[in-house]
């Protein structure tokens, strides 16, 4: 059996039992990456020497942490001291992180080895990873198709066995949607469950770091490692971290499963709907009780998101100005020219579009009509979920309305692209948790494409999500080999 | 035409905290540039702010000192603008929910410019609009071909105090800044030294015909680097506006820069070029609940200078002027209280401190905290004068010696044999000798020229080498010659 097909938990177990070394694991992945990545292009950077050196160090230690000696992959927007961090953007060209993100510290403490940086849409703005300033990443199931985004590099790498597991970030679906279209498990934790310190901010009130993995157990293992209060992130929650892996085995007998009618609207791909409906039936057979619910403000979620996220982004991305780090234009005539040309050269079109939009909605005279109004509707969306979770324990929806689309198909139509996140955005606005798990693949002509099923839980409801995902995984057997 | 000026101030004050506002860097600058920085205050990608509770408490304390309402709940906002000294290109500040709202401060007489104190009419109350907390920016240094930025100050806690347009003269603005500084010193909130940039002030000034209700065109003045500079800038600007109106010009709303060396203001930018700061709530910080610790902060409110002055006048029976001088320097007032505690006549101690000690310290350029004379020795000196052990003339010499050597007055009196003679027998003997030696004066006195006694007193003092108690000498001579 080839080592690269192991799950994160299996790899960790083998190191613990000294059946394999950390160096063995790293080498196996490096071979796989060399073989597959030229086609998938999930990585921006593979730190071969660095990864092997970390592995050698881990092999000399006696295993203690839960991830001892196990390589993990980070999205390119998390700071790891001494290494590049570009957010898929030219504007951070040459920037090396001077400090460690909290998640990096926690992974390091658990013994993990860092493999490299995964491609992403520039500053996490996109749903296809086509907005990366470096290159597009391909969907391992069909190289003509997108891997989703913005954490497309993570999902593609995990789906094609180039990484055991990875950390992505999710602002409006950037973990769950690529996980869905690549056939991975992707979890967006409750806002505040995982420290954002060291994650380059896109939209601060929406961003969360979370795992993209091969199965639910690995997601639980990674979340267990990175969750918990961090004094450096004021918005992180103080609640104790429960044992997530225990929840995987608890079953779902008696859990109430909410089906929101708004998420089964026109525009939903029939094959996706069929697979999701089948999953509902399977969950009922596992003992879940079906409840019809309504989230009436769902139709406004995308609009609200593109006001709030862009407003926050316009401030968060202001620091990339060529003064202290990253790209700087040549021979600026004065400070204004330095700012103007550095940013014109450094940012891609989607980032510029969102900065301009965000600047506009915050401008004097427009603030009330856009930003303030959006915040009010956000409260209504949050309230919708509050009401819904009085009637049910978790909510079931499709993760993405369609399977992976073709590269370039929506590249010139931002509005169509924005709708790729229609099922995932509300969870970020409400601050609740959500997980996407594979529920099968499309049939018919063309290559089979994975389809994702989303479970949403209330704030701090990750244990419930793992109960459902763990139980569902047992009955949803599907061939998850993309055949690369 | 007779014009009235309307002045409002925005005062920035650096808080005396151990660390910066949103990171653990030491709040100190002026050393090696960029030696007190970290990824957070440098605004590196991915960093997040952690609020400094001490700074929030000091701002609430300032609000309590200045009669403000302390908001039970407040929040931080982002103020967006680009400048090279601002690492994130937005400043974390407070927009619509500041820590402190409303408030007022009484201008202290002693805090007006010395030359304007005689013209003060009544007591002026200045209302405050708000006090909020924000982070300071870095400092730019312009070199021949480039600009360098020192970020040691970036992220330092900075409090902004905004007044209502209640001030009408440059002297009142001066008095406001001086009184404010004193109050903040009393609260140990800040060292508030404008010349060190610990207190910075922007001024809004307009003029209108006396009696007119409508406000004139508002002009903002920047770059006021000292309290006296603020006074000069306002005097210049008010005069400039008057002359412009007299020439029939129309004033435009603008920001003007004060050049202290040239003594003039010049236009920086007009209203059309004003920034749109696009404030919005800082998503990286939770709203602040002040209620859990507000009572604790209330207990830190000290006796303020105005109250202390009243107490000094009542408790120690000292004059308004002395009390004013004493409280205008917190250390001096503390010094006085220590001396007064041991002095039989606190008023004498106050005189000694305000007149003699202040003069000597001034000449030696020493602050009161480095006075060579200890407060208890001031008390001791007033005690020996009061008891008649030395004369007040001798006291002057003893004081000078105390200031020079730091010795206590008893030691100096003993060393120099200065003790006053109060022995009745010895004094009577001196008096008898002088009466015997001056028959002509004695006859004069006996024939009704009482003033001539003075001449005999002088003789006795001379004979006793100045040590005889003059009051006793007087008494003996009068008795013997009546």
Q: Your description of this structure?
A:
The complex is a heterodimer of chains A (484) and B (482). Chain A has 484 residues and is α/β, with parallel strands linked by helices. Chain A has two domains: 3-258 and 390-475, Amidase signature (AS) enzymes; 299-377, no CATH class. Chain A is built from 16 helices and eleven strands. The two termini of chain A are 16 Å apart. Chain B has 482 residues and is of the alpha+beta class. Chain B folds into three domains: 3-297, no CATH class; 305-416, no CATH class; 424-481, Arc Repressor Mutant, subunit A, CATH 1.10.10. Helix content of chain B is 39%, strand content 18%. Chain B has 15 helices and 17 strands. Chain B has helices at 53-65, 170-186, 227-246, 291-298, 305-315, 320-327, 330-342, 346-364, 375-386, 392-405, 409-416, 424-437, 439-446, 453-463, 470-481; strands at 3-14, 69-70, 73-74, 77-80, 90-93, 100-101, 104-106, 125-135, 139-142, 147-150, 157-163, 199-209, 219-224, 254-259, 264-270, 280-281, 288-289. In chain B, the strands form four sheets. In chain B, strands 1, 2, 6, 7, 8, 11, 12, 13, 14 and 15 form a ten-stranded mixed beta sheet that branches. Chain B has a three-stranded antiparallel beta sheet with strand order 5-4-16, with no helix packed on it. A two-stranded antiparallel sheet of chain B has the order 3-17. In chain B, helix 3 (227-246) links the parallel strand 13 (219-224) and strand 14 (254-259). The mean pLDDT of chain B is 92. Chain A binds chain B through residues 77-79, 85, 87, 92, 95, 97-99, 101, 196-201, 203-205, 231-235, 311-312, 314-315, 318-321, 323-325, 335, 339, 359, 362-364, 367, 371, and chain B through 39, 42-51, 78, 80, 82-84, 87-90, 149, 276, 278-280, 283-286.
